[in-house]
């Protein structure tokens, strides 16, 4: 297995937070078929149900539909929007227990999740409820995203634990408001003549405990923000914003039904009341509503995420403050070219003439992404201008892509990776901006590229694609149906001179080194939390992490940018000396390319002063490594990246030819890593968790081939 883990959460509720068992069970049942306080819980259906004749036993099995909070990219790769779990609830009124078992139905051959919950009577006070919860996670393989799935599972589990008490309080308060403060205990059926006497011998149940108003208000507030209307409050009748002017709609927004108009008004008002930044224009808000079929909840979510992203990366000012590098102006074969028959701005991209590999090597992915963002921002501006020129709403543009010249060079893996990332960012932040995509002169290699790219494109966007092979675009149903003859570019047989650069190969003299690309100030999809470090032969780079509580989780994510390294984790009961910069005269270790810090004193002995808690992990140049370690003891943990020396041949004790050639590529015995570490405190997990074994995955295949590690408490995933 690539990943195995368990989470255990025992809870004994004290007298200040105690719930009566019977009301608690009644409150629990109100969570079905869906619960507004659990946004990820979309729906549930009853699969089977059993009730004993004496009504003491009630077993019900449900199929639950969940909307997991996972990156959209991961959902696209997995091919699902929702996951399904089977939940079995066994209520024993005689023993006064409720046992809940849940397991995943979706991807059960790749990921195995089991959860156990129980509500029982407190041994010291039978009017109190005890709650205990445990879960296990076994990730066999998940398209190369095992580490991501582990983090999502940990996040969801922690969130559910924190939410559980609040939800029970909410429904207990609901029962109390309905006048239900006493639920008789179960008693075995008796003859009618003894029913009266039996009822007098029953032990009375204590009245329901009062729930603090603050908890109730918080729960009610949560419900309000999650209602189906998608707005915390309705617009006040009679205000100027409760209805849009008909002429304004026709002139700038297009045909809207009364429902769509209402959704736009309510979402705009919600932004005015809650959003502290710049409020987008109605046209922009409308794009997000259309992208989610006017579901306000979903549109508000993606719109808020996009507004935060725009503010974080100063996208609103990109056209005024950023000038594209000269390499882009000379070799990026794309540009704006008049408009189509519907008045949409027309963007022409000669992808087949563009050296994608050269552009990535010369600029890096971040600069390419920023340029694409500037194109989209310019598209929004041109839509506004065309709306004024043509006197009707124009909210999208047309893109014409010429693929003549497309070959296997365009399928260079880092280039495809950059393209997929760009698509992901554009899809999330510029919905409903592409009116039509005309793909011309598609060669035989195009289906390969389309297979790689199409899963990451929204279904609604894919419907706007028109693909022509060879010269089909010149016939009926071709280019003339969408573009006036007078503006068809000359390279497509038209009479209009197109000023789009012709592209061509980027000179290798313009290529930048890996270090120069990493030190680029523009970071749009890699956060600045990543640090750079140099590793030399005899001078490893080390990071100190102090752990106070055992069972904390240390996580890491690093890229091996240059050379091969060995990754180690050590533990020591005493703190190392303050970090010191290595002073090797032969190496410029204080260069901008990264620092080098050594913590383990040379007089320390392994096994006496510190111990190795994980087997060494050899990582090759170009690999990306993610993993975690569950700490067994408090103290000081040292993460170490060490230069990997090539092993000699076992029989001759001489280095192999391949190893010699590989070592020559590492100048001055120097390696380079970009890394990020994080510690998740034990208070977030009410118990222990074992983590993953090592797994290797490749970009070209979305299934992981696993290798085992000798330690069961760590995990690493390596991507090539």
Automatic annotation (TrEMBL):
GO-annotated biological processes: innate immune response; negative regulation of RIG-I signaling pathway
Keywords attached to this entry: Cytoplasm, Golgi apparatus, Immunity, Innate immunity, Phosphoprotein, Signal transduction inhibitor
Main location: cytoplasm
Residue ranges of every copy of the CRAL-TRIO domain listed in the record: 324-500
Domain PRELI/MSF1: 8-180
Keyword Metal-binding attributed: no
Subcellular location: Cytoplasm; Golgi apparatus
Keyword Cytoplasm: yes
Matches recorded under InterPro entries: CRAL-TRIO_dom (IPR001251), CRAL-TRIO_dom_sf (IPR036865), CRAL/TRIO_N_dom (IPR011074), CRAL/TRIO_N_dom_sf (IPR036273), GOLD_dom (IPR009038), GOLD_dom_sf (IPR036598), PRELI/MSF1_dom (IPR006797), SEC14/CRAL-TRIO_domain (IPR051064)
Biased composition (Polar residues): 223-232
Gene Ontology MF terms in the entry: RIG-I binding
Domain spans labelled GOLD: 526-679
UniProt region (Disordered), positions on chain: 193-217, 223-242
GO cellular component, one term: Golgi apparatus
Function according to Swiss-Prot or TrEMBL: May play a role in innate immunity by inhibiting the antiviral RIG-I signaling pathway. In this pathway, functions as a negative regulator of RIGI, the cytoplasmic sensor of viral nucleic acids. Prevents the interaction of RIGI with MAVS/IPS1, an important step in signal propagation. May also regulate the SLC18A3 and SLC5A7 cholinergic transporters.
Summary of subunit composition and partner proteins: Interacts with RIGI (via tandem CARD domain); the interaction is direct. Interacts (via GOLD domain) with SLC18A3; the interaction is direct. Interacts with SLC5A7 (via GOLD domain); the interaction is direct.
Name used for this protein in its record: SEC14-like protein 1
Gene: Sec14l1_0
């Amino acid at each position: 297995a690539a990943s195995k883990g368990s989470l255990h959460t025992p809870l004994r509720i004290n007298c200040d937070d105690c719930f009566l068992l019977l009301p608690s069970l009644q409150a629990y049942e109100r969570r079905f078929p869906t619960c507004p306080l659990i946004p990820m819980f979309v729906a549930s259906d009853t699969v089977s149900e059993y009730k004993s004749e004496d009504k003491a036993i009630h077993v019900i099995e449900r199929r639950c539909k969940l909307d997991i909070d996972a990156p959209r990219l991961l959902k696209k790769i997995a091919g699902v929007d929702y996951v399904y779990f089977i939940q079995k609830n066994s209520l024993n009124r005689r023993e006064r227990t409720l046992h809940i078992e849940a397991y995943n139905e979706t991807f059960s051959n790749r990921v195995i999740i089991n959860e156990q919950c129980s509500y029982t009577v407190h041994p010291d006070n039978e009017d109190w409820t005890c709650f205990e919860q445990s879960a296990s996670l076994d990730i066999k393989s998940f398209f190369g995203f095992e580490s991501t799935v582990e983090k999502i599972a940990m996040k969801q589990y922690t969130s559910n634990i924190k939410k559980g008490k609040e939800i029970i309080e909410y429904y207990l308060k609901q029962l109390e408001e309905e006048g239900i403060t006493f639920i008789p205990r179960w008693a075995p059926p008796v003859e009618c003549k003894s029913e009266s006497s039996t009822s007098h011998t029953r032990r009375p149940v204590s009245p329901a405990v009062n729930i603090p108003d603050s908890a109730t208000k918080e729960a009610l507030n949560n419900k309000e923000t999650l209602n189906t209307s998608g707005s915390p409050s309705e617009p006040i009748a009679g205000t100027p914003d409760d209805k849009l002017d008909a002429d304004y709609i026709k002139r700038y927004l297009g045909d809207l039904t009364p429902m769509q108009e209402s959704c736009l008004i309510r979402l705009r008002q919600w932004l005015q009341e809650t959003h502290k930044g710049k409020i987008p224009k109605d046209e922009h808000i409308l794009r997000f509503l259309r992208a989610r079929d006017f579901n306000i909840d979903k549109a508000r979510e993606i719109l808020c995420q996009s507004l935060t992203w725009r503010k974080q990366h100063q996208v609103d000012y990109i056209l005024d403050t950023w000038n594209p590098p000269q390499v882009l102006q000379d070799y990026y074969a794309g540009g704006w070219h008049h408009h189509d028959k519907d008045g949409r701005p027309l963007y022409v991209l000669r992808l087949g003439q563009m050296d994608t590999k050269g552009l990535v090597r010369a600029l890096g992915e971040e600069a390419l992404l920023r340029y694409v963002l500037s194109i989209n921002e310019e598209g929004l501006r041109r839509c506004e201008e065309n709306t004024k020129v043509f006197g009707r709403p124009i909210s999208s543009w047309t893109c014409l892509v010429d693929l003549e010249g497309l070959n296997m060079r365009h399928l260079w893996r880092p280039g495809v990776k950059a393209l997929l990332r760009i698509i992901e960012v554009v899809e999330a932040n510029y919905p409903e901006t592409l009116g039509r995509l005309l793909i011309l002169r598609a060669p035989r290699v195009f289906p390969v590229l389309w297979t790689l790219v199409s899963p990451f494109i929204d279904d609604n966007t894919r419907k706007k694609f028109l693909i022509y092979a060879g010269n089909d675009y010149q016939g009926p149903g071709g280019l003339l149906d969408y573009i006036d003859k007078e503006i068809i570019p000359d390279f497509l047989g038209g009479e209009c001179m197109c000023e789009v650069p012709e592209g061509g190969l980027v000179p290798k003299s313009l290529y930048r080194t890996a270090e120069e690309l990493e030190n680029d100030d523009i970071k749009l999809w890699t956060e600045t939390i990543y640090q750079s470090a140099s590793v030399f032969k005899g001078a490893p780079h080390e990071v100190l992490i102090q752990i106070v509580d055992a069972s904390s989780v240390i996580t890491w994510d690093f890229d091996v940018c240059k050379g091969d390294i060995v990754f180690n984790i050590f533990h020591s009961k005493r703190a190392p000396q303050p970090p010191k910069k290595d002073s090797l005269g032969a190496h410029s270790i204080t260069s901008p390319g990264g620092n080098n810090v050594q913590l383990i004193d040379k007089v320390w002995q392994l096994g006496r002063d510190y111990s190795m808690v994980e087997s060494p992990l050899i990582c090759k140049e170009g690999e990306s490594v993610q993993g975690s370690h569950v700490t067994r003891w408090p103290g000081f943990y040292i993460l170490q990246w060490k230069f990997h020396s090539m092993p000699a041949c076992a029989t001759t004790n001489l280095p192999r030819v391949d190893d010699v050639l590989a070592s020559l590529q590492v100048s001055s015995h120097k390696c380079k890593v970009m890394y990020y570490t994080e510690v998740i405190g034990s208070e977030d997990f009410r118990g222990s968790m074992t983590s993953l074994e090592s797994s290797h995955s490749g970009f070209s295949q979305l299934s992981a081939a696993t290798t085992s590690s000798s330690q069961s408490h760590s995990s690493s995933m390596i991507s090539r």
